[in-house]
Automatic annotation (TrEMBL):
Residues 32-319 form the Protein kinase domain. CDD domains: STKc_TEY_MAPK. Activated by threonine and tyrosine phosphorylation. One of its GO terms (molecular function) is MAP kinase activity. It comes from the Eukaryota. It catalyses: L-seryl-[protein] + ATP = O-phospho-L-seryl-[protein] + ADP + H(+); L-threonyl-[protein] + ATP = O-phospho-L-threonyl-[protein] + ADP + H(+). It comes from Kalanchoe fedtschenkoi (Lavender scallops). InterPro entries: Kinase-like_dom_sf, MAP_kinase_CS, MAPK, Prot_kinase_dom, Protein_kinase_ATP_BS, Ser/Thr_kinase_AS. SUPFAM superfamilies: Protein kinase-like (PK-like). The lineage of its organism: Eukaryota, Viridiplantae, Streptophyta, Embryophyta, Tracheophyta. Its EC number is 2.7.11.24. Belongs to the protein kinase superfamily. Ser/Thr protein kinase family. MAP kinase subfamily. This is Mitogen-activated protein kinase. Signal peptide: none annotated.
Amino acid sequence: MATPVEPPNGVGANGKHYFSMWQTLFEIDVKYAPIKPIGRGAYGVVCSGLNRETNEKVAIKKIHNVFENRVDALRTLRELKLLRHVQHENVIALKDVMMPSQSVGFKDVYLVYELMDTDLHHIIKSSQPLSGDHCKYFIFQLLRGLKYLHSANILHRDLKPGNLLVNSNCDLKICDFGLARTSRSNGEFMTEYVVTRWYRAPELLLCCDNYGTSIDVWSVGCIFAEILGRKPIFPGTECLNQLKLIVNVLGSQQEADLEFIDNPKARRYIKTLPFSRGVQLSRLYPQADPHAIDLLQRMLVFDPSKRISVTEALQHPYLAGLYDPSRNPPAQFPINLELDENMEEPMIREMMWQEMLQYHPEAINIVT
C-alpha cells in the first residue's frame, strides 16, 4: 500500500504530498490519493490512485530520472505528444501530466492514465478460460483501435499482449506509444529497433529499409495466435531463430514472395533455410472457429504486400456483426511524431514542459 512519508530534506513543494511505494518516492499532486502499487519495470513504477476532485480512479506512472537516458526521454516525449492528440475508445487515455515545481532541473515525470484492471499478457498466462467470443472481441477492439491510429498516420511498432490493457468487462485499450512513428514525407518509416522480437514481422527481421502499416498487422496475427493457443506462436531466441520458426510454420517461400527483401544478404539467408512444407494453422488450433483460422492465415503472410490490411480484417466474416464503418470514423487529421533523434536534453526538457502546460495552462507563469 501507499505509505505517507515526509518530503526529502524536510522541504515539500506547494500542492504536493509524498508517499512511498515499492521503495519508490512518489511526489504527487494533492488532488490525487494513491491507493496501491500495481506494476513496475524499466519504464518506472505505476500505482493506482483516486482523483479526489472527480472521484475517478486513475493509474499514476512515475518515470524516474527521465533524462538519464536520452532515448528513454525521447520515448516519453513521443508518448506525450501522441496521446494529447489521440482520443479513441480502444487507445489508453492520458488524463493528466503533473507539473513539476520548476521547468529547469526536474528529473521525474508523472503521467496519469485511465485505470485498467490488467493486460492481455496476464490473461493469456492465467487459468481463466477464454471463449471464442472473448477472442473475437479482443481482436475486434485491437483492430478497431489500430485502424484509427493508422488513419492518423501512426504506426504503433510494438504491439504485444503486455501493451494491451483490459478491463473486467473485456474492454481493450492499446498503450505504450514510445516506439510509435509517423510517416516521413517520402513515405518511408524509420528503421531503428522496433517491435519485441516474438511479434516482429519478417520485413523487420530481414532489415528491409521500407516498411508500413503491415508490420502492425503481423503483430496482431501473433497476438491472435497467442490467444488461441495460450502461448506464443514464434518464441524465437534471437533474430535468425525467429525467422526459422516463422518459416517452419508458414512453409518455405516462393521466389515471388521474397521480392520485397531489398537486402541481398538477407535474401540469401532465407534461401539457405531447410525446406519446410509448413504447418496447417487448423492443426495448431483445432478448437478455433474456421473463420478465425482464415483471418489468422491472412495476417501471418510472409510477404507484407500480400498481408491483409486492418480495414480488410475488420470486414472479414470472422468479425461479422461487430464492425460498423459508420461508427468508426478515421482520425480527423494526421499526427506528426517526428523528433530529432539527436536532440539534446535542454530541448527535450523544454518540449516536455510545453506538453505539460497543455494540461495545466494556469501554470504558464510559473517562475522557472
